[in-house]
Amino acid sequence: MIVRMAIQNLRFKRFRSFITILGIVIGIGSIFMLVSFGIGLQQLVQGEIVGNESINTVDITPANSKLLKLTSDNLDQVRSIAHVTDVSGVFIGASKVTIDGAAADLVAYGIDSLYMKLSNITIAHGDGIDATASDQIVVNTSFLESAGIGDTEKALNKEVELTLTNATGKTNVTKQRIVGVVDSGAGSEVFVAAEVFKQAGIDTFTQAKAVVDERENISDVRRSIESLGYATASPVDTLDQVNEVFRFFNIVLISLGSIGMVIAVLGMLNTLTVSLLERTKEIALMIAIGARPKDMRRLFTVEAVILSLLGGAIGIAVAMALGFIIDAILNQYASGRGIEDGFSLFAHPPLLIIGALLFMVVVGVIVSFVPAQRAAKINPIEALRQE
After folding, report:
1. Would residue 378 count as lying in a domain?
2. How many CA atoms are closer than 13 Å to the CA of 291, on its beta-carbon side?
3. Judgement on whether residues 44 and 62 belong to the same structural domain of the protein
4. How many structural domains does the chain have?
5. Distance CA 303, CA 318 (A)
6. Which end of the chain is more exposed for a tag (fewer CB within 10 A), N or C?
7. Which tens digits make up the pLDDT trace of 279-305?
8. Are both 207 and 67 inside the same structural domain?
9. What share of the chain is helix, strand, coil (3-state, %, to 5)?
10. Cα–chain-centroid distance for residue 201?
């Protein structure tokens, strides 16, 4: 009965109720949209920093390369550590590559298929190297440009000479066939199978990557590896720094959106207060014929909760719709610029939606406290006498 009476009263003062709900829509909608933007941007940045495959990895380097080496036996030792599922080593060394009679000094990486997958090396043209083949090479666009090759696709299947020098100064020259091209920055670099470095007499890895089964176990694995004398790093370090920055960023966004929420709360309080003044006689009559003070408190609390929930639901829906529209426009614009991968600047996790609705219920209960208490304390005799 109290719910029905609250709805009837809100319908009777439709314009006032509409203005109050509109204020709530603007208040909660602005907060929800800003928070969803912060979460979406955070997820977008996280996706760019670390890929799904590389997040649960630990980078391993010798703390002192003169005293400690990274050999195959050392990698087996790391592989035996609890929660480590696999280990991949990489050779990194200075090299010389000759293509079409032009030679260039650059950095060469000796990798396997696991390291290529964990390093998020994206092939722009062609394919990745076969880890079991010793005659395949992947080059980057910077190297091709320095060699005077503007059309990267024409470089595929070209034969090049790769010269590697081991620790004793002995050089090893091999013929390699370009099977892929990557866009990996300004520096010239190439990728070959790790076997090419081993054939050149290089058997000490420059660094390695250890794959951990669960993110929660990364810290334990790092301590175990560091106890062996190696230095470690992990994408989780960068991820934690990003999360810290976005925690502050989200607080700023919520603070900005709260301005509209404060105005909405004041509007709701004004609506309930005016409603109390207008219905003093009605409330006095209800109390006189048997209504309890707590019934009057409940009546105003229910009205406030209805206003909060209705305005909150509409505000969230409008904010989500605007987010989808903005994402669609930006993706369309990016597609016209040649960016094929879609992205979203706004995220709407279920917990955010549920949390926003619960927040509005709490706001409604708090705002209704003063008017509800005043309604419960009305003396019917005094009120009717004044009327």
Report:
1. yes
2. 22
3. no
4. 2
5. 22
6. N
7. 677 777 777 776 677 777 777 788 888
8. yes
9. 55, 20, 25
10. 43
How many helices and strands in the chain, by DSSP H and E?
Answer: 13, 10
State whether residue 66 is helix, strand or coil: coil
Strand (E) or helix (H) holding 12: helix 2-12
Q: What is the domain range of residue 41?
A: 2-50+240-386
Are 207 and 253 contained in the same domain? no
Tokens of 112: 């396997």
Hunting for tokens 């990486």 — which residue is that? 109
In a domain, 326, yes or no: yes
If you write DSSP's letter for every residue of 261-273 in order, what string do you get?
HHHHHHHHHHHHH
CB within 8 A of 140, min separation 6: which ones? 181, 182, 183, 184, 185, 188, 189, 190
Q: Angle, nearest 10°, between helix axes 235-278 and 14-49?
A: 180
**φ/ψ of residue 231, rounded to 5:** -95, 145
Q: How far apart are CA 329 and CA 321, in angstroms?
A: 12
Count of Cβ atoms closer than 10 Å to residue 57 Cβ: 25
Q: Extract long-range pairs of 51-55: CB within 8 Å, 24+ residues apart.
A: 51/120, 53/117, 53/118, 53/120, 54/118, 54/119, 54/120, 54/235, 55/215, 55/235, 55/236, 55/239
pTM across the whole model: 0.63
Distance CA 93, CA 154 (A): 27
Kindly state the tokens that stand for 232. Answer: 């470690």
pLDDT digits (tens, 9 = 90+) for 76-117: 899 999 999 989 899 998 888 888 877 888 889 998 888 877
Extract the tokens encoding 229: 């004398």
Q: Is residue 312 part of a domain?
A: yes
